[in-house]
Design brief:
Blueprint: H1 9-32, E1 39-41, E2 56-60, E3 72-75, E4 84-91, E5 97-100, E6 119-127, H2 132-141, H3 145-165
Antiparallel strand pairs: 1-2, 2-6, 3-4, 3-6, 4-5
Amino acid sequence: MSLLPGFTNSSIFYVILGVILALLVNQGMAFALSTDMPIVAVESDSMVPTFYKGDILVLQGVPREQLKVDDIIVFSPPNQDTPVVHRIIGINPDGTFQTKGDANPGQIWYEKSIKASQIHGKQIMIIPLLGWIKIITMEFILPNLSWMILGVVLIGLVYVGNRSFRGGI
């Protein structure tokens, strides 16, 4: 017997196992790469042609002293949930950093004085297109989840009602 129609108990087990393994891999990468954010999905085209929206970046945490102009970093701007991926274009006398997106015409106000504590890491690898899974989930599926569930429930009710009406149940 299954908990959900169409799924066997082993299917549910493998889904749960997959989620647990993904979390363990992420935590293992975070430890090995010395960063709290080892994998980031690119969510805009501000760095075209270096990489594109939907690419995945692998980050490595590095000491502030090892960061230099032309390094691509991921940092968290003040009062913003989404981290930013931009190139270092300057280092200020006070040790803060200036960045800019390769495709942007100029700097954004928060890019003129980035503290080392805001930086999650430096880009060390690009995996093309794989980030679309996260982007589609975050921008389409989650915001519309209640409507999607409602649609599935309504379709299910119509199906069950139709079978019941025809004497199929």
